[in-house]
């Protein structure tokens, strides 16, 4: 699933064109961020809202370490992103590992793709992290609330929210 079926946006006209495309240099940027997040002093500066998610390929068995922006919500960690290839390797029964600049911790993960969950959870993510919201094509209304038409558009274009529950 890369995109939802195009339908009129029930929340009105989006304020953005949607999530930013992946840059050609994203692999190099991710490698630099992973390195910075492993350095004790720099990880506190760089990693205030970044973690490294370790996911194993379901077919290849290859291990992927992906820097992700996150939001704490109760005892869970929320990650708003598009349905990237690495996201397809996450399923409810397969544990992942997450590092916040320290040792990796096992976590249970669930990818939310349904409209209701994405609208509700992405609003939490956007309120907490405006940089992540902007990267994912979510603007804000004059009152400071995440724009629902933008969240809907992000969902239409493959937006998902991953919920991690560290063990």
From TrEMBL:
Source species: Nocardia acididurans
Organism superkingdom: Bacteria
Pfam families according to UniProt: F420H2_quin_red (PF04075)
InterPro entries per the UniProt record, alphabetical: F420H2_quin_Rdtase, Split_barrel_FMN-bd
Protein name according to UniProt: Nitroreductase family deazaflavin-dependent oxidoreductase
Bias (Low complexity): 10-21
UniProt xrefs under Gene3D superfamilies: Electron Transport, Fmn-binding Protein, Chain A (2.30.110.10)
Region (Disordered): 1-24
